[in-house]
Amino acid sequence: MATESFVLKVTEVIEETADARSVVFEVPSELQETFAYTPGQFLTVAVPSDQTGLAARCYSLSSSPHSGRHQITVKRTVDGYASNWICDNLKAGDTLRLLPPSGIFTPKDVDADFLLFGGGSGITPVISIARTALEKGTGKVVLFYANRDQDSVIFARELTELSAEYAERFTVVHWLESVQGLPSEAGLQLFASYFTTYTAFCCGPAPFMKAVSTALRNLEFPRERRHQEKFVSLGGNPFGDVEEVLAAQATLAEADDADDEGEAEEPAFAGPVALEVELDGQQYAFDDWKGEEVLLEFLEKKGVQAPFSCREGNCSSCACVVLEGDLAMKHNDVLDKDDLADGIRLTCQGLPLTDTLKISYNG
């Protein structure tokens, strides 16, 4: 199962802006398959901490898969321990512990036409998608990139070079708050209205993503062509062995007060459940999930390499789309009401509500 963490060597630290660094890792030949990724995915990084031992953070891969490069990009945030530690301390030759690539913020078809929205450091997964689509696909790519000011623009040189190389297929619109103010929902909707047949991906600060999402919904972009990435700081430690994590969760469950159960809105269905799963082009079917453990744990026991990171309902790396049936969630800190209405659920918190369930990790 894709649960083991690995210590990788840092080969290069690149200063992208005064507040952003790209970190390049050396992946040995025996781990190339383990660390294979698709554009838009992320790595979970264990940042050393004197207070907690480590701080687990998710950072998107800004490199493209076909480049053979494994590069994340980190922007310093105010009072952000992990980002500041990386920007201030990390250097070539150091090592960090990582989980393999994960996440579902990734296109199904790189030949599609893409409408990309990046806000600040939200450019990191977006540029990976753009590079891949331009270099390996055949469609057009439009990027709306919002930043505080000109000095805050990450990958300014790379975007200029891509625009020159793919002049007939790549359009970049830079939006600077220092010049134009914050992008409005109405402005974003007008911009997107010229590209209503494109597939949209958005990553950035929450207000920016909400404005983009609302604009796309107003234009009736179908759910399968609207994608957004969400990260929050991880409170737990996803770097322990699966057995240790499950044992700890079982101990906590035994100590729970009967009146203080999880956040599921309805009692979970008492299995067995007929379960169908679509993941990375493969189909899985099981008929023995009794709902005694969350869906992610059941899939892991069955040997399915399902994506995950925090295991606490704090990130979207384990998210799936429910196609038939329904899942209750014990805890959810990341999905909003619109996500839930679209059938998105967190498998690390998912318990069955129906005797039949069909899910897809492919959006």
TrEMBL record:
<keyword id="KW-0560">Oxidoreductase</keyword>
<dbReference type="GO" id="GO:0016491">
    <property type="term" value="F:oxidoreductase activity"/>
</dbReference>
<keyword id="KW-0001">2Fe-2S</keyword>
<keyword id="KW-0411">Iron-sulfur</keyword>
<dbReference type="InterPro" id="IPR001709">
    <property type="entry name" value="Flavoprot_Pyr_Nucl_cyt_Rdtase"/>
</dbReference>
<dbReference type="InterPro" id="IPR008333">
    <property type="entry name" value="Cbr1-like_FAD-bd_dom"/>
</dbReference>
<dbReference type="InterPro" id="IPR006058">
    <property type="entry name" value="2Fe2S_fd_BS"/>
</dbReference>
<dbReference type="GO" id="GO:0051537">
    <property type="term" value="F:2 iron, 2 sulfur cluster binding"/>
</dbReference>
<dbReference type="InterPro" id="IPR017927">
    <property type="entry name" value="FAD-bd_FR_type"/>
</dbReference>
<keyword id="KW-0285">Flavoprotein</keyword>
<dbReference type="InterPro" id="IPR050415">
    <property type="entry name" value="MRET"/>
</dbReference>
<keyword id="KW-0479">Metal-binding</keyword>
<keyword id="KW-0408">Iron</keyword>
<dbReference type="InterPro" id="IPR001041">
    <property type="entry name" value="2Fe-2S_ferredoxin-type"/>
</dbReference>
<keyword id="KW-0274">FAD</keyword>
<feature type="domain" description="FAD-binding FR-type">
    <location>
        <begin position="3"/>
        <end position="108"/>
    </location>
</feature>
<dbReference type="InterPro" id="IPR017938">
    <property type="entry name" value="Riboflavin_synthase-like_b-brl"/>
</dbReference>
<dbReference type="InterPro" id="IPR036010">
    <property type="entry name" value="2Fe-2S_ferredoxin-like_sf"/>
</dbReference>
<dbReference type="Pfam" id="PF00175">
    <property type="entry name" value="NAD_binding_1"/>
</dbReference>
<dbReference type="InterPro" id="IPR001433">
    <property type="entry name" value="OxRdtase_FAD/NAD-bd"/>
</dbReference>
<protein>
    <submittedName>
        <fullName>Ferredoxin--NADP reductase</fullName>
    </submittedName>
</protein>
<dbReference type="Pfam" id="PF00970">
    <property type="entry name" value="FAD_binding_6"/>
</dbReference>
<dbReference type="InterPro" id="IPR012675">
    <property type="entry name" value="Beta-grasp_dom_sf"/>
</dbReference>
<dbReference type="GO" id="GO:0046872">
    <property type="term" value="F:metal ion binding"/>
</dbReference>
<feature type="domain" description="2Fe-2S ferredoxin-type">
    <location>
        <begin position="273"/>
        <end position="363"/>
    </location>
</feature>
<dbReference type="InterPro" id="IPR039261">
    <property type="entry name" value="FNR_nucleotide-bd"/>
</dbReference>
<dbReference type="Pfam" id="PF00111">
    <property type="entry name" value="Fer2"/>
</dbReference>
<dbReference type="GO" id="GO:0050660">
    <property type="term" value="F:flavin adenine dinucleotide binding"/>
</dbReference>
